[in-house]
């Protein structure tokens, strides 16, 4: 496994030298946040942007934030505009051509009993605790709401949501999302987790965060110790491509696991990035080597500006069918479509039907099997 810290072939300097800082600064998540790439000129330190990328940056800047951590930028292939890292974060004029997309395809606004809470299921909620991520993914569902914010105002708002959770005893599972909850400082996280833990009916707290992928240095020993004080905490992160499985990301996942936090992965099926069986297999197998369990792979939503990432659902089903039986079962995530009524599994129909007293099933390699079905 190679790390960002490795000197790339054809380059004589490690990334922190290219960024003009010490190795310690480079590994400091606060430095990474401050030094984020925000325009074409910053980006030129890492790649030579194509005309399409430059025009994308210029024409899309007022619509969707363009921000990349130096760590993630150092993973980009400077010579390949189709690089799966680059395509996830660098704007492209293709985002301007999308007849189907809408700003809120999941109708989340209508499923919000109180600001920042999305409730689709009776027993669990998504709690959007902030609007900020370490970087912004071009395919993101949440990109409509990102921006800077004032903590005092945010704290008051979060308190209203906490009151709602306190008064809603059915809620046993709270998923902290955003934005990205790990962009919060340790102090803010401590405040939030303490408040949630004080609610007796909240059994588990989950974190949805992309920082182990986009800024793994955020996963410090102090953060892990903090999380361990508020167990049971589960965490799902978001790797989309095997090239994101660096030594640094592995270290971040290992620290979380050592702290007793089960780590899962939710990816998005993205055209030209991971929509082939070999890449999905390598990603799933790479994740389980890190002891990270692939959980969901989402069908990309009909979100505005993302037509160039979408894959037809039938093709997605065939892709996951090709993995079944050909790798460890737990290296395969469940392919799902998120809808305003919850997540729907998209599965090949292995259960073919009933014939008399028998049920007919199809195995991964196409064999039909009849099984006497108990009445
Ligand atoms: C995904 C999601 C959850 C959690 O769903 P699980 O299937 O339990 O992982 C909860 N609430 C909302 C709104 C969600 O989108
Ligand atoms: S990190 Fe997650 S929430 Fe943030 S922009 Fe990327 S996909 Fe969206």
Report on this model:
- This protein has two domains: 15-91, no CATH class; 109-346, TIM Barrel, CATH 3.20.20.70.
- Helix 14 (313-323) links the parallel strand 7 (293-299) and strand 8 (334-339).
- The protein is an alpha/beta fold.
- The chain has a nine-stranded mixed beta sheet. Strands 10-11-12 form a three-stranded antiparallel beta sheet, with no helix packed on it.
- Helix content is 30%, strand content 16%.
- The radius of gyration is 21 Å and the shape is globular.
- The relative contact order is 0.10.
- The chain has helices at 15-18, 23-26, 29-34, 40-43, 51-60, 70-73, 84-89, 151-166, 186-197, 211-214, 221-228, 247-258, 277-289, 313-323, and strands at 117-118, 124-128, 173-177, 204-208, 233-237, 263-269, 293-299, 334-339, 342-345, 351-355, 358-362, 368-372.
- The mean pLDDT is 93.
- The longest helix has 16 residues, at 151-166.
- The chain binds pyridoxal-5'-phosphate (PLP) and iron/sulfur cluster (SF4).
- Iron/sulfur cluster binds at residues 133, 136-137, 140, 142-143, 180, 210, 238.
- Pyridoxal-5'-phosphate binds at residues 118, 120-121, 124-126, 175, 343.
Gist of the model:
The chain is an alpha/beta fold and 375 residues long. The chain has 14 helices and twelve strands. The strands form two sheets. Strands 1-2-3-4-5-6-7-8-9 form a nine-stranded mixed beta sheet. A three-stranded antiparallel beta sheet has the order 10-11-12, with no helix packed on it.
Query: Which term fits the overall shape?
Result: globular
CATH H-level superfamily title of the largest domain: Aldolase class I
Number of discrete domains: 2
Q: Give the % helix.
A: 25-40%
N- to C-terminal distance:
52 Å
How much β-strand is present in the residues? 15-25%
Task: Please state the structural category.
Answer: alpha/beta
Work out the radius of gyration: 21 Å
Average pLDDT confidence is 93
Give me the side-by-side strand order of the main sheet: 1-2-3-4-5-6-7-8-9
Query: Could you state the order of secondary-structure elements as H and E?
Result: HHHHHHHEEHEHEHHEHEHEHEEEEE
List the ions, cofactors and other small molecules found in this model. pyridoxal-5'-phosphate, iron/sulfur cluster
The major beta sheet can be summarized as:
9 strands, mixed
**CATH class designation of the largest domain:** Alpha Beta
The total count of strands amounts to 12
């Amino acid at each position: 496994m190679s790390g960002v810290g490795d000197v790339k072939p054809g380059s004589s300097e490690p990334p922190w030298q290219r960024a003009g800082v010490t190795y310690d600064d480079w590994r400091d998540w606060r430095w990474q946040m401050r030094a984020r790439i925000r325009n074409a000129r910053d980006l030129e330190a890492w790649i030579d942007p194509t005309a399409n990328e430059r025009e994308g940056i210029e024409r899309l800047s007022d619509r969707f934030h363009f921000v990349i951590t130096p760590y993630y930028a150092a993973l980009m292939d400077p010579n390949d505009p189709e690089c799966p890292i680059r395509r996830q974060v660098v704007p492209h004029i293709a985002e301007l051509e999308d007849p189907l997309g809408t700003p809120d395809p999941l109708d989340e606004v209508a499923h919000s009993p109180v600001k920042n809470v999305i409730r689709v299921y009776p027993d669990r909620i998504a709690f959007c605790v902030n609007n900020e991520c370490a970087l912004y993914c071009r395919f993101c569902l949440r990109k409509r709401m990102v921006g800077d914010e004032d903590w005092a105002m945010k704290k008051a708002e979060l308190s209203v949501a906490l009151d709602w959770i306190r008064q809603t005893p059915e809620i046993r599972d709270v998923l902290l999302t955003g934005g990205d909850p790990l962009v919060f400082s340790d102090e803010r996280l401590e405040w939030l987790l303490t408040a949630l833990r004080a609610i007796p009916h909240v059994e588990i707290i989950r974190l949805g965060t992309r920082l182990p992928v986009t800024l793994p240095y955020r996963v410090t020993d102090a953060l892990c110790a903090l999380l361990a004080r508020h167990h049971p905490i589960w965490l799902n992160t978001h790797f989309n491509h095997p090239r994101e499985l660096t030594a640094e990301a592995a270290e971040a996942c290992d620290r979380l696991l050592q702290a007793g936090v089960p780590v899962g992965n939710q990816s998005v099926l993205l055209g030209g990035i991971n929509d082939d069986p070999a890449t999905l297999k390598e990603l799933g197998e790479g994740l389980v080597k890190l002891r990270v369990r692939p959980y969901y792979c989402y069908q990309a939503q009909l979100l505005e500006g993302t037509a160039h990432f979408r894959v037809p659902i039938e093709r997605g089903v065939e892709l996951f069918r090709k993995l079944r039986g050909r790798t460890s079962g737990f290296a395969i995530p469940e392919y799902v479509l998120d809808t305003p009524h919850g997540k729907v599994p998209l599965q090949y129909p292995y259960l073919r039907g009933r014939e008399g007293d028998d049920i007919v099933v199809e195995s991964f390699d196409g064999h039909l099997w009849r099984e006497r079905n108990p009445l």
